[in-house]
Amino acid sequence: MGILWTIIIGFLAGIVAKFMMPGRDPGGFIITTLLGIAGAFVATYLGQAVGWYRAGEGAGFIGAIVGAIVILAIYRMVVGRRTTV
If you write DSSP's letter for every residue of 17-68 in order, what string do you get? Predict the structure, then answer.
């Protein structure tokens, strides 16, 4: 059940991250939500590694949003650089 909640929270975090980071998004809505899900998994993993969350406990909504924004920013840098060359 923990992975399902991480996916749901990541989906919502991806939507919020899209609205918090205005501008052209090279991947569109679906890629942004997938990056939000990845951000939630990254936030969960890093939070557990640092000791913020216990094993089996997922990242909170704010942590997932931060993870989604970081991954979305990295994605924009990588894809934006690739399309301009």
Answer: HHHHS-S--TTHHHHHHHHHHHHHHHHHHHHHHHTSS-TTPPP-HHHHHHHH
Q: Please, how many CA atoms are within 13 Å of residue 6, restricted to the half-sphere of its CB?
A: 19
pLDDT in tens, the chain (85 residues): 567 877 777 788 878 877 887 766 666 777 777 887 888 788 878 877 887 777 666 667 787 788 888 888 888 788 776 655 5
Q: Can you tell me the distance from the alpha carbon of 31 to that of 50, in angstroms, rounded to the nearest whole number?
A: 28
Q: What is the pTM of this model?
A: 0.70
Cα 14 off chain centre by? 6
